[in-house]
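Morning. Coffee machine broken again, so started the prediction first thing and wrote up yesterday's gels while waiting. Chain of 139 residues, entered below exactly as on the submission form.
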Amino acid sequence: MDIEQALQAARDNDQSVLTTIKSDGRPQLSNVLHVVGQDGVIRVSITADRAKYANLRRTPWAALHVDGADFWSYAVIEGDVTLSEIAADPHDATVDELVEHYRSLRGEHDDWEGFRATMVKDRRVAVRLAPTYAYGALR
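Came back before lunch.
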């Protein structure tokens, strides 16, 4: 499977499992919502107090598993990760990126100022996964 085929599967289904590497080398998996940007970079919103954040700071690599049309159909996208700064101000670059992330997933929010304040309160971070390898079986 090539990366573009896997990215199309990720565009078709925004629900996925993000795999990061714990300090002991074992995988840590989390259900997430993701967005595939026009640049092919996959973005996920996480909080800075979770294991995913510590894992990605230590080992900036992740894999994203996306289901296809049935149980036997899936794509896995591996790639290098960069992290935004932790959201610190409702109008900083991180929060702006998280607003675009939300819009891509769900459209307009009914309270953008409240959303922005929550991003700071939750210490949100944007994860950017740049695909380097893909595998799976799509039907």
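The mean pLDDT is 97. Going to sketch it on the whiteboard this afternoon.
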